[in-house]
Amino acid sequence: MKKVILIGYMGSGKSIVAKKLAASIGVNCLELDDLIEKKSEMTIEKIFSSKGELYFRKLENQLFLELLKEKNDLIISTGGGTPCYFNNHELLNVENVVSVYLKASVGTLWSRLMKEKQKRPLIAHLDDIAVKEFIAKHLFDRSFYYNQATFKVDVDGKSVDEVAAEITKLLA
Fold it and tell me: Which positions ≥6 away from 166 have C-beta within 8 Å?
């Protein structure tokens, strides 16, 4: 194993599962969005509002490529849109990379995201019904990219520990 990339929609558990997985197998984990904020010295929300999505996606792709070139084993938690831009989906199965799609249903994502709606700029302004429609549309639009992952793990009804254990078995 060299790089384990976790992909999936916002609220699927990428960040928390990456941390749990990293701790259980003794590998460092990095969050792509955190690296983008650090490099740009701006929040993701500020990047989108001041520089635009294209700037964000270019920076995201650049940093993603840099992470894949790292010599050390690493778990990478991506943003929900990472696989959908540039050729990022083609990088999910290159040599020394294993990717895992944390697949969650619209209902699971909706219930998770409603708890932190104000922290999510893409949905903060939407009413509850519109959030569900937004998630469903995005999942449909992004399914091709998410399904390029080496493995798919259904997260509905599972704890973080259960998901991390399932991924650990897949990596063995």
Answer: 153, 158
